[in-house]
Amino acid sequence: MSNNLHNTFNSKSLKLWDSSEQASIYVANQIAELISEHRKQGKSVVLGLATGNTPKKVYQELVRLHQNESLSFANVISFNLDEYYPIFPDNDMSYTYFMQKYLFGHVDIDPSNIHIPHVDSNVEDIEEYCKAYEDKISSLGGLDLQLLGIGRNGHIGFNEPGSSFSSTTRLVDLHPVTRADAESDFGSLEKVPQQAISMGVHTIVQAKRILLLALGERKSEIISKALRGEITTEIPASILQTLPQVEYVLDNEAASLIK
Ligand code: PGA
C-alpha cells in the first residue's frame, strides 16, 4: 500500500462498551441525535444503513425512540450498503425484507426516501443502475452518516478482500467466508447467492461520519487486524484507519485482542 496513507487511528476514535447492548444503544443515540439536529434546522439527513446481525439492536432502539420518545424519521433519506443478487425483495433473506422487518416497517420514514440497491435479474444494464445509485447519493450532498458492520474477512458492505479502495457501487462476487457465514440463515450453502450489489469502498469513505460497530468474540481477530494491522485491500476495513471521521464502536468481546 502507498506510504502516504496516514494512520489517524487513536483512542478518540475508539468507543469501548461492556456489553453489546450498550454499544448498540450508543450507536442508536448518535443516529437519533443527528436526525434530530437536522430536523431542527429544517434539513433532511442522509443515512447509509447496514444489515446483518450486528445492527439489529441499533434498529430496535431507534424503533423504541420513535415509539416512546417521538423521534421522527420524516426527514430521513436512507441508502443501504448492499443487497444480494439476484434476489426478490419479498424473499425473507433479502435486505429489503430485513430493513422493513427491523426498522422501516415501524417508523415514519417516507417510503420514497428508502434506497436499497436492488436490481431485478432481468435488468440489463446493472452498471447504469449502480451509477444512478451513486449519483443519487451525490446529488443529495453525500452520506451524512454511514453505519457499518464488519465481516470476519474484513469486508465492509460487500466489498470483499481485494476490493479496490476506489471502487464505487457495482456487482460483486461474494467471498467464500461471506457465503459460509450466511449459510445457516439461508439453510444451505447452495441457496446463498453468489453475487451482490454493493456500494464501493470509495462510496463509503466519502461519508461525513462513519460508525463501525463490531460485537462479540468472533469479530475480535478481524478487529485487531483492521485497526492495528497493515492498510491493505486484502482487509477492506483497514482503509478506515486513515480517516478522521471514523469511530469504532466495540463491545468488550470484539475488543478483546486490541486492549
Ligand atoms: P454480521 O455481518 O453483522 O451478521 O456479523 C456483518 C458484516 O458482514 O458486515
Cα-atom radius of gyration: 17 Å
Overall mean confidence score, pLDDT: 95
**H/E element order:** EHEHEEHEHEEHEHEHE
Give the terminus-to-terminus CA distance.
26 Å
**Percentage beta strand:** 15-25%
The count of helical stretches stands at: 7
Number of distinct beta strands = 10
**In the CATH classification, which architecture applies?**
3-Layer(aba) Sandwich
Domains, number = 1
Structural class: alpha/beta
Main sheet attributes: strand count, strand direction, barrel closure = 7 strands, parallel
The outline comes out as globular
- Find the CATH topology: Rossmann fold
CATH class wording: Alpha Beta
Quick rundown:
The protein has helices at residues 20-40, 56-69, 95-102, 126-139, 176-186, 201-205, 220-228, and strands at 14-17, 45-49, 76-80, 82-85, 114-115, 145-148, 170-173, 195-198, 210-214, 246-251. It is of the alpha/beta class. The mean pLDDT is 95.
SSE order and pairing:
Elements (H helix, E strand, L loop, with lengths): L13 E4 L2 H21 L4 E5 L6 H14 L6 E5 L1 E4 L9 H8 L11 E2 L10 H14 L5 E4 L21 E4 L2 H11 L8 E4 L2 H5 L4 E5 L5 H9 L17 E6 L8
Parallel strand pairs: 1-10, 2-3, 2-6, 3-5, 6-9, 9-10
Antiparallel strand pairs: 4-8, 7-8
Helix pairs in contact: 1-2
This protein binds 2-phosphoglycolic acid (PGA).
The site of 2-phosphoglycolic acid has 6 residues, from loops.
